[in-house]
Amino acid sequence: MRQTKENRKEEILEAGLEVFAEKGYYNTTTALIAEKAGISQPYIFRFFKTKEELFVAALERAFERILQTFKNVEAGSEQIVAKMVEAYEELSVSNPNEIALQVIGLSVTEESIKNCTKMGLSRIRSYTLERFQLANVPNAEREVTTFLARGILCNISYFLDLPEMIHGEPK
C-alpha cells in the first residue's frame, strides 16, 4: 500500500530525530537519515530544503512534546512541581531523543537552530511559570528557574551518561 505524503514526511522527521540524537547535528547527513527512513536521499528534499531545516523541524517536535507533556500534568499547588518533574522523567524514558536534541540544539551555531532552541526553551519557561503562578507556588519565578536549571542539568547528565551529576554517585 502506498503511503501518503504526510506519512512519509512524518517518517523522515522521526528518522531525523533519531539520527540527529545519535550522531549530533554536524555528524549527521541526509544520506544517513534517508537510510534510516528507508528512502532515497533526494526524497528528503521534497519535504525539507536543507538538513538545517529538517533539524529545526525535529527540534520543534521535541519542544512541542515536552510542552504537551507539561500540559497533560494535573496537580494542585502542593504537587505541581513534583508532578511536572515526574512527567519530564517519564518523557525522558519514553522519548530519549528529545532530550538529546535539546542538548545538541544548545551547541549548534546556525542562527535558525539557535533561534529554535531559544524559542523552545522560552515557551517552556513561560508555560511553566504560568502553571506555577496559577497553582500559587510560592516564589514562582525562582521555582521556575530552579526547575529549568535542574531539567537542563538532567539533560546533560543523561546525554553524557553521567548520572552522578544528579545522584552524586558514580555508576
3D architecture notes:
It is a single chain. This protein has a domain of 117 residues. With 171 residues, the chain is mainly α. The mean pLDDT is 91. The longest helix is centred in the C-terminal third of the chain and has 24 residues. InterPro entries: DNA-bd_HTH_TetR-type_CS, Homeodomain-like_sf, HTH-type_TetR-like_transc_reg, HTH_TetR.
Quick structural overview:
The protein is mainly alpha-helical and 171 residues long. The chain has helices at 5-23, 30-37, 41-44, 51-71, 80-94, 96-107, 111-134, 140-160, 164-167. Residues 6-66 form the HTH tetR-type domain.
Rg for CA atoms: 18 Å
Count of individual helical segments: 9
pLDDT averaged residue by residue: 91
Q: Give the N-to-C terminal Cα separation.
A: 47 Å
Can you give the helix content as a percent range? over 70%
Compute the number of strand runs: 0
Strand content: under 5%
- Uncertain regions: pLDDT < 50 for 5+ in a row? none
* Element pattern in H and E: HHHHHHHHH
Q: Report the structural category.
A: mainly alpha
What overall form do the CA principal axes indicate? elongated
Q: Summarize the biggest pleated sheet.
A: none
Pfam families: TetR_N (PF00440)
Domain HTH tetR-type: 6-66
GO molecular function: DNA-binding transcription factor activity; transcription cis-regulatory region binding
Keywords: DNA-binding
